[in-house]
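ASSEMBLY PREDICTION REQUEST
Request ID: AP-0331
Submitted by: J.K., bench scientist
Number of chains: two
Total residues: 537
Priority: normal
Notes: Please return the full assembly, not individual chains.
Input sequences:
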Amino acid sequence: MQFALMIHHTPEEFAMRKNDYSDSHLGAWRAYYKALVEAGVYVGANALEAPETGTTVRLKEGKRRVQDGPYAETKEQLAGFIILELPSIDAALEWAARCPGASIGAVEVRPLAPEAMRRGFTG
Amino acid sequence: MNKGSQEDIQSAVGRTIERVARESYGRLVAYLSVHTHDLASAEDALSEALVSALKAWPRDGLPQNPEAWLLTAARHSLIDVIRHQRVVLASEPTLALLKENSPEANLSTEFPDERLKLLFVCAHPAIDPAMHTPLMLQTVLGLDAGRIAHAFLVPPKTMGQRLFRAKTKIRDGGIQFEIPQERDLAERLDAVLEAIYAAFGISWDDMFGIDPRGRDLAEEAIWLARVLLQLMPSEAEVQGLLALMLHSEARRSARRALDGRYVPLSEQDPKQWSLPLIEEAERHLADAFKRGRSGRFQLEAAIQSVHSERAHTDRTDWAAIALFYEQQVRISPALGTRVGYAAAVAEAEGPEAGLAVLDPIAPDAGSHYQPYWAVRAHLLQRLGKKREAADAYDRAIGLAKDPAVREFLLQKRG
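STATUS: Completed
Returned structure:
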């Protein structure tokens, strides 16, 4: 089954990402991705821009309501996600613990919805 | 058939259902959910089967194998539910369940005991630790959410919602029904033991003399430990936990005087202790020690075992108790363990030595812990430091939850 590792960063981490990511820090991420691919569990991943670049849209009574900023005003914000193919939550928690994001923020692990349900959405 | 014998049959059926439910509930739930991971549906199906049994058994007579009867009935009702669900959502395991039930695949009376997997699922690290014990009580023992809520001091509706959430996560969250791998086993087993001991602890905490249901929960915890031991007969810590709980259980009635007054261990009359329970505890502890793998629960049981020896020797070997506490502090320096160590050292070597163990505990760590202040007060009193002792007693009295303990401390304070 597939799991999403959702990586949440602190504002400090987002700030650091723009200016001064050290080689060793980037090296840790690169090594992690390499390990994921070599273990044959990697499905996909991506990183997001900082939360202040986000814009939230709602449609209420036919009117478009646009709000500057991310959906939820929490200290730690979604910074990126990784999709993995794994046999169980135990394996997913293990990979989450190895993720460099776990030591500088938080990594939420969530299973993707079952394939049958996903197909229902995408047709 | 006259009315009297009809009633006899009814009550015989009732008793059989009660017995089968108690002994087989967890086995049936575990077996019905091991492939689907759907505990809630398995429990619903089993309740329906129990209701049908109440109707059918007085009419048709008791089946030869009541457990197999219930399993067949529960399975039928489970399959009805699955057939009503949208086919698109039917997963491999549910389809397998449908197939297994084809008329040819006749149910054998023997089916595998999957309770160990279920216990590990209930105490899985991805499940909120506060829910480990409630999940076990419900899925393995069949306790209803209302009773569990009562024991955990939360509204029944809240407990029902939390249980529902936990079961949803077990069903959809990728938690496998399996025995953990060797390298994770110690840690995972520890979570199972903690959850069982927590159920036992609740019943102790509730023994304010006002809650008759507390007693049952201690029995349930001991039952769970027995089930676990049956499934993992060579794990020393499982036996250690069972020995610990049996030792405590042996002293239950001695903890209260007839007027409800709290009686501390040192003042209990060993004649009121249950010797059969102590003997059983000793057997398990001796077996556990033979395996040569020490652990937290064995050490705690060993301490209780030394206390129980007073029944034969009329004295307490505090030096031995202090030694076991010292080993335990080395394994896990929890606050309660350090306070227990201090009390034992004080008994063995005098109050100054006890205070020397208490003093390094950070004041904020001990500030809300009643036993810390009670032991401190007792030792200061023995040293003749009256004012400091009275202050410490006040702290302990202010933190006491049990009215009987509060009364005891007030009298000591003088």
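REVIEWER COMMENTS: Residues 67 and 249 of chain B are 31 Å apart (CA to CA).
SIGN-OFF: pending second reviewer
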